[in-house]
User: Fold these one by one.
Assistant:
Number 1:
Amino acid sequence: MDKISMVHRDSLSCEAIVRKLPDKSLILVSQCGGVTEPALENRVLVFHSRDGEKWSSPELIREDNGRALYATDMDVDAESGRVRVYVTEHNGGYLDTDCYALVSDDGGHRWQREELPCFGRDFVFLRGTIRTPRGKWIAYQRYAVEKEENDSLRRAGKTILDSMLPAVRCGTLFSSDGKRFEKGEDILIPNELNGKRVWQWPEPTLAVLSDGFAMLLRINGAGVLYRSDSKDGLHWSKPCPTDIPNPNNKPKLLNLNGGAVALINTPNPELGFRHRNPLEIWISDDDMRTWRYKKKVLDFPGWLSYPDGFADGDRIIFSFELNRHDIYLADCDISDFFGK
């Protein structure tokens, strides 16, 4: 049986991310505040729940310093319980950025700053962590805007979206011990499509395959997701279009028991916010060559955006936003895929 419950309503709610803590409770973070993003009023709120239905009152993830804050991923270490939230602090227009992690050792109540591996304070979004016996990989999207352009945009009252940056850089970081990281080769995603200027927001998501790794990317204006593959998780093939529809929305890959891979997506080829529906779970058992299992979670008018969560046995638990105001939690049964 599937369950969908509301977590929070705000003037703006986007990029909700939910994870399970070692005590089996849930922690969720989301960007809230203001009426749009990016905006100076954007903040990151933290929520807790024992059962996924009743949620704590929101708490600011860090003391308000008057600057905008955006969370791009959350990772929970299953052994230590350490919670790590990757954030971007900015001036309200993704300029003058300060990118770092906030780390908690008490289940997400008290936080301390941790510098990002490899990038320093560069404008970079870390977008998803996966683990294997070898170590962990983190996907990234990076905007290598020079300081001169950053300052010029700020003086003109513009945002990063007005930058003339020719391409976004995506890729992965790898660590065998969780402390020292190696950066892989960049994948260049041009800020154009079919000869037209298109600002790209690739939001890479990763999965482990039988012979390597796969990355799916949102390519604005394409109407489908793109895919890149890697044998070692550091060197990636040129992204190519798939036949998976996407209306310019964030997808999420999850590894399941037995080597299967799940995709949470809004498979609609029509572009724009109002086409971010239906919300579906697809599952592949052949390294993402085909998707023999498809489950419709929600199908009604509205913006069903930015799904993100985790697999828990024969269930997939994820958060999503409705119309950029409401945060919901979906707890979906996929036991029929496993023949139960």
Number 2:
Amino acid sequence: MGRQIKTEENKVKKNKKKKKFHIGRIIFLIIIVVCVIVGIIFAKRLSDLKGNWMAVLLGHNKETVENLETLRILVMGESTGMSDTIIVCSYNPKTQNVSMLSIPRDTYVTNENYKYSAYNKINSLYSGGKTPEKTVQAVNEITGLDINYYILVDTEALIKLVNLIEGVYFDVPIDMNYDDDGQDLHIHLTKGYQKLTGEQVEQVVRFRHNNDGTSYPPDYGDEDYGRMKTQRNIIMEIAKQTIKLKNITEIKNILNIMKEEVKTNVNFNSIIDYVPYAVNVDMSTIKTSQLPGVSENRGGYGWFFYYDENETKKIVDELFNGNSLPE
């Protein structure tokens, strides 16, 4: 009788072990199946998103990019209290088109209190109350665009960013030699491809002409045109070199610089979906130009840049609407 009870107990134990084994195997198989399904979904999304693993990790699918609208931001560089660098930047994530339009700092704008004074120059709009929105409004009126965002970067932020990524390689277009003790501005750089520190990048973006009067060659863009072209080129190089893999570890410090030194109305949570696609932009395809017009001293009131409305419409249409200019 006792032997029979023990036999029954052993059978129960064996059955429990079998059940545990079966349950464990089922759970293992479920995990395997789930992993396979997740892997298939990940691979499918990776295929749909053309290998963009960052987009997949953010939970994107191929519809995500289709729902992203063109992003347009007015980038302003502050120097001596004025926005001396003004560039319209546009990014279309569907086509991967990036366009940049420079606005001369001396562009004439109407002012109800003045007709011809320093306050009629577009770079003065920010200095009067430190309100970037006024500059955005003026640029929208000039270009006919609907720009909602702005980023205001001072020279200190530029210096810190470039030094954080350990410098930026750039082809300095000409020998630059300029000293202005009044502004404590001293520019001394030699022509050629080289690695620049943050302080040297500041010199490049602020350069207009040498003390002896020489400036950029005519085929490059003399004086302000040359300066604006150089500014666009170096911004592209900084962007390209900032997103290199080796600088990903500095993303926290980069964001800290932006938080402390950059003034913007951009909600970074709203544009995070653009990041996986923007990092894959082919920098060589970026279209750049500057506002068309002439610099003139009309009526002896000083030099202003007067933009050409018809040519501006053509340039804007080409850069931002994807239409080619007529031959």
